């Protein structure tokens, strides 16, 4: 498997920052007021408020250059060029917040090294389905579980250890892989750790979420 493509997909799946140039005009991510961003099989997908400049650009089919840095500690960046395309308008079922979904049809991919060298990546290597479950996806999901599902983690530890949930003071997933995860918890007796193995290794991000849900016996998003 192409290591440069793997690195580039990990950056796209778990970025820590970047900038966008739309029809020659540069914007920061904050200026675009995005409500969400995702890597859909190597295709950047943006969620933005209705009537926002990114939504207009998607409807126009604007040319775009996207440069992103990764959150995993490396110094490389991924540089994508292509066109924006408006996909749909959607709304949250619980709060009725609306958003526009805009995708980027990628035409060119480069991995930019710390010394400025730009390494071209073939598009078919970048969009290889084998890269859908990459290090960036694993890191992003681990952070999501720890930051947004502490109650489910405490319940899972309590069930596993036969301890009252109130006695579990803190929990944390310390490592997440396609095969399972390592987790730690603190109770009145001190710190502990354990490993959970999925019934079968995850091959896709959807498999990963399903494996975590089953292991925790919880409905997580």
From TrEMBL:
**InterPro entries noted in UniProt:** DUF2470, Haem_oxidase_HugZ-like_sf
Origin, by domain of life?
Answer: Bacteria
Q: Which residues form the DUF2470 domain?
A: 143-208
Pfam hit, one: DUF2470
Its name, as the record gives it, is: DUF2470 domain-containing protein
């Amino acid at each position: 498997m192409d290591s440069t493509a793997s690195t580039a997909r990990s950056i796209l799946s778990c970025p820590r920052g970047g900038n966008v140039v739309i029809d020659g005009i540069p914007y920061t991510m904050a200026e675009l007021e995005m409500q969400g961003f995702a890597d859909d099989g190597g295709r950047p997908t943006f969620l933005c408020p209705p009537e926002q400049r990114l939504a207009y650009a998607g409807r126009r089919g604007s040319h775009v250059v996207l440069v992103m840095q990764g959150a995993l500690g490396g110094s490389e960046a991924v540089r994508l060029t292509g066109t924006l395309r408006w996909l749909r308008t959607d709304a949250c079922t619980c709060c009725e917040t609306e958003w526009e979904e805009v995708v980027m049809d990628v035409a060119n991919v480069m991995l930019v090294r710390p010394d400025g060298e730009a390494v071209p990546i073939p598009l078919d290597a970048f969009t290889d389905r084998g890269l859908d479950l990459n290090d960036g996806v694993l890191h992003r999901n681990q952070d999501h579980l720890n930051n947004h599902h502490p109650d489910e983690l405490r319940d899972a530890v309590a069930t596993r250890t036969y301890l009252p949930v109130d006695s579990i003071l803190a929990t944390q997933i310390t490592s997440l892989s396609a095969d399972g995860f390592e987790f730690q918890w603190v109770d009145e007796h001190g710190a502990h750790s354990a490993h959970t193995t999925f019934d079968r290794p995850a091959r896709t991000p959807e498999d990963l979420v399903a494996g975590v849900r089953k292991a925790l016996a919880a409905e997580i998003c």
